[in-house]
Amino acid sequence: MSFIRSLKSSWLIALLLFVNANPSLAWDAFPVGESVTLMQSGTDYNVEISCAKTNGSKLRLEIRRVYAPIDEIERIKSVTLHIYTGTSLEFAQEIAVALTTDRDIMLTGFVDFAMAGLKSLASGSKLDIIDNATGRIIFSSPMHGTSQGRKLFKERCGI
Asked: Which N-terminal residues, if any, form the signal peptide (predicted)?
């Protein structure tokens, strides 16, 4: 009887560990033709960083509000993208963003990654996006999976 109880406990522990694992820790990369999109879901916002061969070293940044209210996203005019390696800030760039409502309500802008920025994208440990008007971090994510995205950027977009 104690063996069965032990087996049930082990199964329950394994199930709880599986359920509590956060599947969104890794960035997903989606290559299509001569473009690649890196995607990550956050608590309030979803973020996409994409390259297209026609855009050169500029990467398109899309920030989508996950849930209402949308008034916060409507007020944002610029953000700063920070990439950290450990606790050191490796890359920072202010990005002018525009509100678009074509498909979804989202902010769009372009990040001009030089080679140093692309290296940070591949080796960074954390990415933060800060609303410049309020100083509030609106998106923060570990950067698991971005090194694969960096390889695809080079392969598909030539950067």
From this structure: 1-26
